[in-house]
C-alpha cells in the first residue's frame, strides 16, 4: 500500500489502449482520498494513514452494467497544504480529476472550494472532467448535496469544465461506482468532441 504501482495480472492485454485513463485523486487532507482509491482497487475497506507523497494504483472497473471494462491509472496525492503545489504535476495530461470532499467538515468547505477551483482552472486542466466525491454522506451531520454544490461553487467552474457531484461513502463504497461511471462518460464525451 505504498508509493508504488500494483496491478492485477492479465488486465492490460485484454483492455484496448483507448479504454485506459489517467486520473488524479485530489482533495484536502483527511477527506478520504486514499480510502476511496483502495475501496475502488480492492473492493473492500483498507485502513489507511495520511498520504505523505502519493499512491499510484491501476484499477480495472466494469462500467455500464458490466458491458464495458476500463482501466484507470490513479494518482492519489496527499492533501496537506505543503503538498498542494505538487498537484498540478499529477494532473498534467490527466483524463479526469476525482476531487474528494469531506461532507462533514463544513468549516473547511471554503478551503476545499479554493483548491478545487485553483486546480480545475489551471491552463492544462481547462475542460478536464471533474468528479466531486461528497464523501462521508452516511454520517448524520453531513452537508446536503445542495449545500455542497453551493459551498464549492461548482457552477462557477465554467461551461467548459464538465463536473458531477456524487454522494458517497468511501468506507462502504456506496456511490463510488456510480461516480466512476459518470466521469467515464464525461471523459468519453470529451474525447469524442476533441476528435470532431
Automatic annotation (TrEMBL):
Keyword Magnesium applies: yes
Q: Which UniProt keywords apply?
A: GTP-binding, Lipoprotein, Magnesium, Metal-binding, Myristate, Nucleotide-binding
Q: What family, per the record?
A: Belongs to the small GTPase superfamily. Arf family.
What CDD domains does the entry give? Arl4_Arl7 (cd04152)
- Which Pfam families does the record associate with it? Arf (PF00025)
* Role, per record: May play a role in apoptosis. May act as a tumor suppressor.
- Kindly give the NCBIfam families that the UniProt entry links to this protein: small_GTP
Name the UniProt record assigns to this protein: ADP-ribosylation factor-like protein 11
What InterPro entries does the database record attribute to this sequence?
P-loop_NTPase (IPR027417), Small_GTP-bd (IPR005225), Small_GTPase_ARF (IPR024156), Small_GTPase_ARF/SAR (IPR006689)
Cite the binding residues for GTP.
Answer: 27-34, 79, 135-138
Question: Is the Magnesium keyword given for this protein?
Answer: yes
From the UniProt record, which GO molecular function terms apply? GTP binding; GTPase activity; metal ion binding
| Record: residues binding Mg(2+) | 34, 51
Amino acid at each position: 500500500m505504498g508509493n508504488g504501482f500494483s496491478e492485477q495480472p492479465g488486465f492490460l492485454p485484454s483492455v484496448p489502449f483507448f479504454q485506459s485513463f489517467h486520473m488524479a485523486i485530489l482533495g484536502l487532507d483527511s477527506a478520504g482520498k486514499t480510502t476511496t482509491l483502495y475501496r475502488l482497487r480492492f473492493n473492500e475497506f483498507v485502513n489507511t494513514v495520511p498520504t505523505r507523497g502519493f499512491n499510484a494504483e491501476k484499477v480495472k472497473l466494469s462500467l455500464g452494467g458490466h458491458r464495458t471494462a476500463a482501466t484507470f491509472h490513479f494518482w492519489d496525492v496527499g492533501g496537506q497544504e505543503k503538498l498542494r503545489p505538487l498537484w498540478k504535476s499529477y494532473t498534467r495530461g490527466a483524463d479526469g480529476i476525482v476531487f474528494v470532499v469531506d461532507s462533514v467538515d463544513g468549516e473547511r468547505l471554503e478551503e476545499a472550494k479554493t483548491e478545487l477551483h485553483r486546480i480545475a482552472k489551471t491552463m492544462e486542466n481547462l475542460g478536464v472532467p471533474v468528479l466531486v466525491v461528497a464523501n462521508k454522506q452516511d454520517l448524520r451531520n453531513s452537508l446536503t448535496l445542495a449545500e455542497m454544490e453551493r459551498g464549492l461553487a461548482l457552477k462557477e467552474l465554467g461551461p467548459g469544465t464538465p463536473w458531477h457531484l456524487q454522494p458517497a461513502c468511501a468506507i462502504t463504497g456506496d456511490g463510488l461506482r456510480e461516480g466512476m461511471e459518470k466521469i467515464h462518460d464525461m471523459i468519453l464525451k470529451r474525447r469524442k468532441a476533441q476528435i470532431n
